[in-house]
Amino acid sequence: AQKVTQAQTEISVVEKEDVTLDCVYETRDTTYYLFWYKQPPSGELVFLIRRNSFDEQNEISGRYSWNFQKSTSSFNFTITASQVVDSAVYFCALSDAGGTSYGKLTFGQGTILTVHP
Amino acid sequence: DTEVTQTPKHLVMGMTNKKSLKCEQHMGHRAMYWYKQKAKKPPELMFVYSYEKLSINESVPSRFSPECPNSSLLNLHLHALQPEDSALYLCASSQQGGKSSYNEQFFGPGTRLTVL
Predict the structure, then answer these.
(1) B60 touches chain A (CB under 8 A)
(2) Which of the four pLDDT bands, split at 50, 70 and 90, describes residue B99?
């Protein structure tokens, strides 16, 4: 069975601080996908990144960066110089690569990030 | 255009009403999903359609009835709901990748449903 753990329920920072959201996953599959989604107060889940299990390269996109480490089954997300607009719930998710799961996502419980001005 | 649209944005209904939620995407995606999300919880998968065929039903009560009229549209018909069914209902779509894998899901803005 798959499992995603986001141990940080809520994080509060002041604008311009760097913040890292942790994600630890469990799966028996050798091929799988990891995702991060952002859910602002409006409710829509916004796709941020997908990482394939065979690609351990870290990625940077503007103020966002992701650190994928298979050895520790972690896929952490860092926001540099946080802004008030980053305030949202962030979900880490996992899916296997098999066709019979149809891309079914296993979500973590989410981390509520509040950035204060 | 990575947009999934959902109507209505808000819906209030009584327990005896029949209503429908609608979802549309024009990205050519062949997989579409319905999720239910309660406050402060992650989304829970309800149904998956792949190539307009119901592929996953996560043991959802029959008062929720999905329908996929064509590859761009997904409906969720509601009948005799209970107050505990009040939630945010999210639709998503994804493109099938290689070797039967599925790529990232793109979500709509959701319908906030209140059952009185």
Answers:
(1) no
(2) low
B92 touches chain A (CB under 8 A): yes
CB contact under 8 A, B103 and A109: no
Q: Specify the pLDDT at position A102.
A: 85
CA–CA separation, B101 vs A42, rounded Å?
Answer: 30
Q: Which residue has the higher pLDDT, B98 or B33?
A: B33
Per-residue confidence (pLDDT) for residue B48, from 0 to 100? 94
Judged by CB atoms closer than 8 Å, whether chains meet at A43 and B94 is answered as no
Residue (of B102, B52, B109) closest to A93 by Cα position: B102
Distance from C-alpha of B112 to C-alpha of A63, rounded to nearest angstrom: 31
Pick the closest to residue A33 from A41, A44, A25, A21 (CA basis): A25
Q: Model confidence over B75-95: pLDDT tens digits?
A: 999 999 999 999 999 999 998
Q: How far apart, in whole angstroms, are the C-alpha atoms of residue A50 and residue A46?
A: 12
Contact B101 A33 (CB under 8 A): yes
B41 contacts on A by Cβ (under 8 Å): 109-110
b/e map B84-108, b = 16+ CB within 10 Å: ebbbbbbbbbbebbeeebbbbbbbb
**DSSP codes of every residue in B85-102:** G-EEEEEEEEEE-GGG-E
Q: Under an 8 A CB cutoff, do A105 and B94 touch?
A: no
Chain A contact for B48 (CB, 8 A cutoff): yes
Beta-strand relationship, B10-13 and B31-37: unpaired
Residue contact B56–A46, C-beta within 8 A: no
Looking at residue B1, its pLDDT comes to 56
